[in-house]
Amino acid sequence: MSAPVTGPVPTLTATPRVLSIAGTDPTGGAGIQADLKSIAANGGYGMAVVTALVAQNTRGVRSVHTPPTGFLREQLDAVSDDVETDAVKIGMLGAPGIIAEVSGWLRRVRPPIVVLDPVMVATSGDRLLTPEAEQALRDLLPLAGLVTPNVPELAVLAGAGPARDWDEVVRQALEVSGRWGVRVLAKGGHLAGDEVSDALVDAGATDPVRRLDAPRVHTSSTHGTGCSLSSAVATWQVVTGDWFASIDRSKRWLTESLRHGEELNVGQGHGPVSHFAGLWERGGRDTSTGDEWWQRIDGLRRATDADPFLTGLADGTLAGKAFRYYLAQDAHYLEGYAGVLSRLGQLADDPVERAFWVAAATACVTTESNLHRTWLGASERPAPGPATHEYLGHLRQAVETGYGQGVAAVLPCYWMYADIGHRLAPRAAGNPYAEWIATYADPLFQYATQQARSITDRVAGAASPPLREEMWRAFERSAQLEREFFAAAL
Ligand SMILES: Nc1ncnc2c1ncn2[C@@H]1O[C@H](COP(=O)(O)OP(=O)(O)O)[C@@H](O)[C@H]1O
Ligand SMILES: Cc1ncc(COP(=O)(O)OP(=O)(O)O)c(N)n1
After folding, report:
1. Can you tell me where the transmembrane regions are (predicted)?
2. How far, in Å, from the CA of 202 to the mean position of ligand 2?
3. Tens of pLDDT along 199-233?
4. Domains (ranges, CATH) in the chain?
């Protein structure tokens, strides 16, 4: 049976390609190593150009080796000559020559999003920048879309002593923002209190100070928080195009990563945050459960492909009468399927999933009525056949057993149609069924299928082994019933 193909148009966002220009941390908690983890954890593709090789660990910095500036330029050009970069995050820039090189490259390449973390002092208290470099860094500020200093760095930029309270942080951030005409993410990590505030400060905006609060995580694993946050914001900015929303998403992710940092048991000083903790907790450690199920029904899919209904659709030889019977059954099916999808909307805890199922149910009703208007006459309404009854009975039972079983049961209807539509559309061009097949090759339907797959993966990833087994059985039975539904038309 066919899944709904209409509904709100989603934004199709490609994976953000984010370049980190920063120094290294061989213990993996800060610098480039942290940036790459942060970019990946927040959904981006990370790239890295090394500005400094830093011998450091969770206890402190031992020494810094900066590459010749010519070699830095070669690294930068190697990226920009080949890859279109969506966002750049700049971290440690050890010396004035390095800053000049990066500044020249930014002016030539003009990346659309630049986040500058003006790394000057590590959590350990070590200075990471020479005094001349501090001055050169100020000149880089106007090239950035967002600058993310911590309390001591903000003080250096403002030419003042470190702020002792939040009001002073905001005053200094307004001063820096106004003087260099740049947005500042003022960070309160170095202040005391049970809440950690950050604020997006833009002296030129109508709402110049937009604050975000989070509970303070009581942990010693705070190494690399600034690197991780700025990379996450750069990544999210590609997706949202809204600095405040990007900071909000990044801060929530960072707070969760901070909570799990100590579990990593890395180092004896300030340990790293656990960049992938949220992903692991929500099943990200497993390979896609859906992909595994899809492989397991490989034989059934091949057999469905070889059935006369599908071969007839593909080459246009399917009898019109059989197709109309199929469509009439599909209309009955969609009525019932809409009810199952809307029940999933009621059962979903996650607001994004709830919205997806509710929209899918609405789309289903629209598809059903379009089906009648476009393909079926008012009189063509045979009663639901046994295959339709059986499939709907299975779906209703699955969703009443639980959310996981319901999600797994509705998936084959999306996935098998998306797959068939994708493969058959080029072959069916010009035949009487081409238009109908094209609806399932449509990017919108492919996207909805991807979302249904992601939801299934998330739910299966968090499920107990017995529940996952029940989900698999619900999925497998639906796949069999899909084949029987096609066959019933003949
Ligand atoms: N203990 C903590 N609990 C929750 N959030 C924190 C904590 N420490 C820092 N943060 C957050 O981490 C980010 C980096 O902050 P900060 O420590 O001020 O910068 P840096 O790492 O550059 O020194 C900010 O969003 C800040 O609010
Ligand atoms: C190579 C390198 N870059 C940056 C830092 C400091 O990073 P930050 O995220 O500000 O981390 P903490 O100050 O919170 O450790 C670094 N140590 N090394």
Report:
1. none
2. 24
3. 999 999 999 999 999 999 999 999 999 999 999 99
4. 17-281 (3.40.1190.20), 289-488 (1.20.910.10)
